[in-house]
Task: structure prediction
Amino acid sequence: MATIENDTIFALASARGVAGVSVIRISGEKALQATKKLLKNKEITKRTAMLKTLFCPNTKQVLDQVILLYFAKPHSFTGEDVVELHCHGSVAVIEAIFTSLLALRLRPAEPGEFSRRAFANGQMDLVQTEGLADLINAKTDGQRQQALQQMGGVLSEHIAKWRSLLLAAIARVEAEIDFPDEEDVTGVLLEQVKPGLAQLQQLLKLQITDASRGQTIRDGFLVAIIGPVNAGKSTLLNALAGENRAIVSELPGTTRDVIEVTLPIGGFLVTVADTAGLRKTDDKIEIEGIGRAKKTAQKADLRLFLSESDTGVVEPNLVQSGDIFVRTKTDIGPKKRLKQNELEISAKTGAGMEPLLQAIENRVMRVLSATELPVLTRARHVQAVQGALDSLSKAEKELGNMPELAAEHLRGASQSLSRLVGEVHTEQVLGEIFSGFCIGK
Result:
């Protein structure tokens, strides 16, 4: 992101297209001055909604009648002077206002530039900024709740506690190094460090263990439909989707690739994947499809094992605890005694679909329902916490022998945690994070 930080920027903060109202956001040191050049009545009160008429700075023609809001720095989203123009949401109005702002030498914002300025000006840390991005993109209630927690600083508060424990340990170890002859320092301080480090390691290990939950809420819970050819996998996918997404045929091997549909289940995003039927074959394309089916099954959070008659699993090594076994096509076959953890359905008639959906929802809720822990939602979060854990482990080994080396490892752990909130960062990391935002955010 190549930007000039002291530029005053503008962008459409609401969705593009025809609307009753659209919001144009302006941020920077010239935001108020530029706005006044569009007004005849130049009186502007902070944090007060005002009805104003905008005029073209060159032709003096009326641009639109707007609701204007002014937020003086640092009490704004970006920490800079910010003006919001709530205008009529037509393409013509927006373009006319944009043309006038360009004439006043303001610059169109780049994707995520408002949020990046908020981060740079200390309005939010990097973890909170990522929470904001997740909130904007939230499709389910579970994603919304998790994003609000992260944006509100719940995870940041925990990171601050971890860093506090680490700082206390660093101070004690460095006291041992700097004052080796002091009676109240030597030896005793190093013993005082160990409980705090053990506590910190335990906290970080809990976060690593729980990290998959946060990433699954954000990215979606994956359910793989697995079974032999003609077991009714594609018919089940279509029934769950409520439309024909997969080709259904009596010919074996019709499904060659993974076909996915996304559904909201239990307030969470769930992706259901139809896969190629498992069987022995010489067809190279079908072999590739079967390979993809197995890979999907291995990475899935839940597997539905389908069979028309007996739910004996074609690939027992794919089965994991909590998987669901389903007998299909009950509308055309004789009733059979169900085994434990086994359901029966007819995707054509809908018989048994409600219990199956309930079983899927129960599993989703059990895996993803909130705990007291805030969650790590991105791979970079996990990487930073794991880096801190590795450094702590090295420091623990050196405490009794080489306190100087232990202190260096503790500083490495502190640096890893600092990367989480963005106190230590690279432009490449920031560019990747903020490029995913919409232009008006």
Observations:
- The chain has a mean pLDDT of 85.
- The CA atoms of residues 178 and 185 lie 10 Å apart.
- DSSP finds 13 helices and twelve strands in the chain.
